[in-house]
Amino acid sequence: MYKLIACDMDETLLDEQAQVSQQNRDAIAKARAAGVRFVLASGRGFPAMQTTAQILGMANQTDEYMISFNGGAITENRGNRIIALQALTFEQVKTLFQIGLAYDVGFHIYTTESVFMYRINQEERTYVEGRLDGYIELTSPDIDFLKDHQLIKILFHNNERHYLEQIKQHMPAEIVAQLSLSFSGNRYLEFNQKGVSKGNALRFLAEKLNIKPTEIITIGDNNNDISMLSMAGLGIAVLNATADAKAAADYICSRDHTQSAIADVINRFVLNA
Question: What letters, b where the CB count within 10 A reaches 16 and e where it falls short, cover 31-57?
């Protein structure tokens, strides 16, 4: 029997309007009522995951957890209590920022409280609306004011995935060796501290909860989900997933994120409905 479902948010649980369908809500509620934990596992920071947690009835709850920043943080929902955190140094972030300035990319820089953005276009503003409410847009390429902040993640944005892949290939080897790199949403190249991944964070949380990997279902759509798809007893890619995510999965759902794929997974593998 499965005891925990870890689920990505954007392009997996959430539809094109960044909403949770009623079918997904109902299925998740039934799974939780049956004693199965539901853990949100996102590239977002935990402040930007609260609306979805509220919709699912898990916000500010004791003994409920979420994985954020691609595994850079694990928090208990009650008071967003940080259980584990792996930050970047300011020097790492500044180096990546300076490298990115030479390319046609926008930037998101994540602290535990805020997201700072630089060089973003209107299309990106529209995309993050409802996903990253309350971000701070920078007007100059000066991030020295972040020196004393706890920095968890930085990402480059460009709508051409191939362009981001080229940037990754040309990153200095000594920089890449210090970091965990991943793609998400087919629009972001993300940088976390070395060793950070959703899979490693989920493994840590599962050990804390005395849950075996074989008792876990993971659901995702992109390359930053591969680590958790690979470590679970049942890794599931939604129909709109990348080819790499599908290759890492044990099962490919017949529905995409606009068709209540999570409800289909829960009904099939948890509720046997």
Answer: bbeeebbbbbbbbbbbbbbbbbbeebe
Which residues have C-beta within 8 Å of that of residue 247, sequence separation ≥ 6? none
| CB count in 10 Å sphere of residue 62 | 9
Query: Which residues lie across from 180 on neighbouring strands?
Result: 192
Give the residues of the chain that fall short of pLDDT 70.
Answer: 273
Cβ-based neighbours of 116, under 8 Å, separated by 6 or more: 107, 108, 109, 110, 135, 136, 137, 138, 143, 146
Kindly report whether the global pTM for this prediction surpasses the value 0.85.
Answer: yes
User: Cα(83)–Cα(85) distance, rounded to whole angstroms?
Assistant: 7
Terminal C-alpha separation, the chain: 15
**Closest by CA position to 204, among listed 43, 85, 42, 77:** 85
C-alpha triplet 196, 228, 250: angle, nearest 5°: 155
* Helices marked H in the chain: 22-33, 50-55, 90-100, 122-128, 161-169, 173-176, 198-208, 226-231, 243-248, 261-269
Closest CA to 77 of 104, 37, 130, 29: 37
- Residue-level pLDDT at 134: 84
